[in-house]
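Table S2 (text version). Query chain:
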Amino acid sequence: MSVYKLKGTSGSVINQSFPFGNSIVLGSAESCDVHLNETGVAPRHAEICLVEDDSLMLKDLDSSTGTLLNGEPVIETFLASGDEIRIGTNRLMLQAPGLRPERILTADVIGTTKRRWPRIVGWGIVLGTATSLAVIEFKPEWFDFLRSLAN
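Corresponding structure-token output:
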């Protein structure tokens, strides 16, 4: 039973799943475990293999166009669950239940902050309206005028 899986997220492998055990080869050759049917992809483009300490290693197999891991070019690097591998227009996500993701998407990690401008604009409108009503003398006949507009 395979623990690791590559899930295609774009390109010719979209919505395909590729389970593997000790290793998996990606490339344009028909004999590859993950066939990437695209020009510019080497026959044996990259390989993912299990190393001694039960971690996964991604190796670019001297391809001319390169392999990207999470948007960065790599030659050889360790993988974590949730990593995105890009070869040409093909994107694959590593799903490795045994490996803990190094980055968990929280507000602290991705740098998002609370939006304050909607509150500032809202309070500006409230205060501006309150100030206008305080400055203008309110006349009861305005209610009659507004009622006549509604009819």
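Notes on Table S2: The mean pLDDT is 81. The longest helix spans residues 117-135.
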